[in-house]
Description:
It comes from Lacihabitans lacunae. InterPro entries: VWF_A, vWFA_dom_sf. Residues 179-277 form the VWFA domain. This is VWA domain-containing protein. This protein is of the alpha/beta class. It has 3 domains: 18-84; 123-172, no CATH class; 177-365, 3-Layer(aba) Sandwich (Rossmann fold). Helices cover 41% and strands 17% of the residues. The chain has helices at residues 18-32, 37-51, 60-69, 86-101, 142-153, 197-214, 249-262, 296-311, 325-338, 347-365, and strands at 73-75, 82-84, 123-130, 167-172, 177-184, 219-225, 229-232, 267-274, 280-283, 286-289, 316-320, 341-344. The longest helix has 19 residues, at 347-365. The protein is flat, with a radius of gyration of 24 Å. The termini are far apart.
Amino acid sequence: xxxxxxxxxxxxxxDKSTFEQLLNIFQQLLLIFAxxxxxxxxxxxxxxxxxxxxxxxxxxxxxxxxxxxQGYISEEKQDGELxxxxxxxxxxxxxxxxxxxxxxxxAKSSGNHRSPHKGTSDENSSDxxxxxxxxxxxxxxxxxxxxxxxxxxxxxxxxxxxEKDLEVTDRESNIQxxxxxxxxxxxxxxxxxxxxxxxxxKVALAMAEIIRTRYxxxxxxxxxFGNDAWQIQLKDIPYLEVGPFHTNTVAGLELAMDLxxxxxxxNKQIFMITDGKPTCLKEGINYxxxxxxxxxxxxxxxxxxxAQAKRxxxxxxxxxxxxDPYLKKFVHEFTEVNQGRAYYSNLDGLGGFVLEDFxxxxxxxxx
Length: 367
């Protein structure tokens, strides 16, 4: 199939039922086929013929029946069209989060909203970490510290506790953060036989899920940009498709900044996932487009918007799915103007980079 690369299926879920294994593949295919249930099931059948995913006891038809019975898909009464349910959309978010964030190396203490500075509404968390210079004495966890001293220094009558034995209860800052995630949906996101939009959708779903579950007071707005830019809802993400668009980065950034202006939170940030250079501007009702190289008119406008974001104290983190030297030079200049960050990521590492930097920015930005 043009635009997608599939590797040989490996059965890594031997302890799971056939239904669970097929459900995992089916949900991956739903993202690839923009939520089209019929196309996803058709391709799943092709994979079954090629890799024998099912056997004589349980076939694809049984799987489809179970999807209906368990509420993963529904069938329209009038035309018989199969559609996704809210249950499947939630499942895809959770799967994306586990696929991306579950593989990251977690720190010893992985609590919520950790900050290098003490806020006005800090509360003790359930996380314990090693004592550091500057920690308050009332943070010391006596149970953990005494146990460390017993292990390290022996169980004598006169127990001695050294600084290295001390552990403290970490504190959480209740300061909110507002994030806008920008996703490039220009035509280049499926060019050259590589599907780049599906990993971008997984990242958006994972970010939405981690904010909903770990940082419920935070906000996440998601926008897409091609010739124009517009906001989408969480439920729209699985159905995203690449269009015949150029890349109007300016429109995306202007919309992102407008959304953040409406937020009352102190800490604000923009994450931009793109694989191409800015190639489009809107001038009144007309579009100024140039796909050949870096057009100075478009570049200057893009740099101006980056500087404007800096004045508003909105850092922009750019995740560039490209390695062309001239594009890297542009992104470097863009990042310097904004004082943000830039990553040149392959598709496999994209999710990890985004989520790690999301947490790093939170710790850095909270003052």
